[in-house]
């Protein structure tokens, strides 16, 4: 199916059309769809690292998510009024503004339902990152999305993707997820060993707040002196782990892992449903629209999708300002407006997420939404940022490094196979 006004990142002569002297490039080729997916993979793997960085610096997640939500909606508006308005509007393929007045409410509701579950999933992961870690949260949510979401999209797309390639790719993804879980377990054991090296130094148990390690410091006073001089702890040391707990907004020490895993699994279920809902909004597989009403374009669907995502996020986060969860401190809307610490980064994260989602949907409309779920290999990008920015897996055991390398290699294989399953929507 050809969609006017979708600029292809792979420019082919057959994709060029002229309208009023303007060259229009369409994402209708397999190459263009894969380019969209790759760019979406980078964007969607980067914005979580930015929000994690702000939480680790002590910024309240309610403040961060409110900023993020604003630019996330802005990205959808930009896409709708640029790509959605390029080219001549026809009865079969109306542009964005013309579709706003059409009787297409069933498709609009599907798009908005997708936005609601995505907003709930993104909001949940912001808290899960603190408990479970950026990399492990990403692999668990990705696995649930692939198992449920990709299967649903495959059947909704009338098997446009090659099953003999698609489902082996899903299997590779699940193997990578198992390896990711093993990485988390091994790394947690490494951290426990680091902490246990000094936890026995003080019988009263206060060393966990102020001590580093018996091999590095022999006295409590030495540690206090070093902290007062703001000496930066090295990644992967017990000192670093303790400093992180003191600075971060969400305190996780002493809390059970069940809370974080429960939040993560809830987020994964939400993520597995938003893409099938968007698929129904743009292709009307259940025939809910009247015969004379054209399908929603990917841009119009994304606009309504982002509107509901924005509204849910605003309502919940303003509520969390005054009624916080997980023992976070109370805040207020006035305090949020005056909190400029890290606001630019949060706004950037919203743009990355918004354009990343838009690119994923553009690629999915051209090559099948099941293949577009290859962007769920975003743990590749998140793990890179986790190691570079947060020092994850620094000074870990050889076993942890071997598992980490195996996980990343399997993710690369999974991405390649899912992209190779791309079909062409008729």
Automatic annotation (TrEMBL):
Is the ATP-binding keyword given for this protein? Answer: yes
Q: Where in the cell is it found?
A: Membrane
Q: Name one GO cellular component term.
A: membrane
Task: List where the protein spans the membrane.
Answer: 32-53, 65-84, 104-121, 128-153, 165-185, 258-281, 301-323, 344-363, 369-389, 401-420
Key word S-adenosyl-L-methionine present: no
Write down the Pfam families for this protein, in alphabetical order: Ureide_permease
Keywords recorded for this protein, A-Z:
ATP-binding, Membrane, Nucleotide-binding, Transmembrane, Transmembrane helix, Transport
Q: Which GO terms describe its molecular function?
A: allantoin:proton symporter activity; ATP binding; uracil:monoatomic cation symporter activity
Q: Which InterPro entries match?
A: UPS_plant (IPR030189), Ureide_permease (IPR009834)
Q: How does it sit in the membrane?
A: Multi-pass membrane protein
Q: Which family does it belong to?
A: Belongs to the plant ureide permease (TC 2.A.7.19) family.
The name under which this protein is listed is Ureide permease 1-like isoform X1
- To which species is this protein native? Olea europaea subsp. europaea
């Amino acid at each position: 199916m050809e969609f006017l006004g979708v600029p292809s990142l792979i420019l082919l002569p057959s994709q060029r059309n002229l309208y009023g002297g303007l060259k229009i490039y369409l994402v209708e080729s397999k190459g263009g769809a894969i380019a969209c997916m790759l760019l979406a993979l980078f964007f969607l793997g980067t914005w979580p690292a930015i929000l994690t960085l702000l939480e680790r610096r002590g910024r309240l997640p309610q403040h961060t998510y409110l900023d993020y939500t604003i630019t996330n909606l802005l990205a959808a508006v930009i896409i709708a009024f640029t790509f959605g308005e390029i080219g001549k509007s026809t009865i079969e393929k109306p542009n964005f503004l013309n579709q706003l007045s059409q009787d297409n409410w069933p498709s609009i509701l599907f798009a908005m339902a997708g936005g609601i579950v995505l907003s709930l999933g993104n909001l949940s992961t912001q808290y899960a990152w603190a408990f479970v870690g950026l990399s492990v949260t990403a692999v668990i949510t990705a696995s649930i999305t692939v198992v449920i979401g990709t299967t649903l999209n495959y059947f909704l797309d009338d098997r446009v993707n090659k099953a003999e390639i698609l489902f082996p790719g899903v299997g590779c993804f699940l193997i990578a997820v198992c390896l990711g879980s093993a990485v988390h377990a091994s790394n947690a054991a490494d951290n426990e060993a680091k902490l246990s090296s000094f936890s026995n130094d003080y019988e009263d148990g206060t060393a966990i707040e102020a001590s580093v390690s018996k091999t590095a410091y022999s006295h409590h006073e030495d540690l206090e002196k070093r902290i007062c001089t703001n000496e930066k702890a090295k990644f992967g040391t017990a000192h670093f782990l303790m400093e992180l707990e003191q600075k971060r907004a969400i305190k996780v020490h002493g809390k059970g892992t069940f809370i974080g895993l429960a939040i993560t699994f809830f987020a994964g279920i939400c993520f597995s449903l938003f893409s099938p809902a968007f698929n129904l909004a743009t292709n009307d597989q259940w025939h809910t629209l009247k015969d004379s009403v054209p399908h929603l374009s990917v841009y119009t669907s994304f606009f309504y999708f982002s509107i509901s995502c924005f509204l849910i996020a605003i309502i919940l986060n303003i509520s969390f300002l005054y009624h916080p969860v997980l023992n976070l401190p109370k805040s207020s809307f006035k305090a949020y407006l005056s909190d400029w610490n890290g606001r630019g980064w949060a706004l950037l994260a919203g743009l990355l997420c918004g354009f990343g989602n838009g690119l994923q949907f553009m690629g999915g409309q051209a090559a099948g939404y099941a293949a577009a779920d290859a962007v769920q290999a975003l743990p590749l990008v998140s793990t890179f940022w986790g190691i570079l920015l947060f020092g994850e897996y620094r000074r870990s055991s050889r076993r942890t490094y071997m598992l980490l390398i195996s996980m990343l290699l399997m993710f690369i294989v999974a991405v390649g196979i899912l992209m190779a399953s791309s079909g062409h929507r008729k």
